[in-house]
Amino acid sequence: MARILIVEDNPDNMKLFRALLTLKGHEVTALPSGDGLQEALVQHRPDLVLMDIQLPGKDGFALLAEIRASPHAALRVVALTAHAMTGDRDKARAAGFDDYITKPIDIASFPDQVARALAGELNDTREPG
Ligand code: MN
For the whole prediction, is pTM greater than 0.85? Predict the structure, then answer.
């Protein structure tokens, strides 16, 4: 069981992520944008953040930069990247995300991807580019 903070503006995605991770016994906190992110980090002390890239207001890159410049700098943060945006993966790694998970997610493997992220193992290493 881990505490996981999800920042995702798509309600259907959020519902799915929350359901899958709750089913695995994780404690999920949901934010639809970066508003209140720092407060949520203090209040919920997540073990892992799943961060959508495309968000209303500040995007995932800007929010990651804020985390890395904060007392929570060492937090494990995984980008949620849109499948069509292939360049996002490289940008995510270069920006300092610990890992990325491609959307739409594969429901069967998503919990394992999150488990590996929690364990500090990299996902999707078999995919070129
Ligand atoms: Mn989004």
Answer: yes
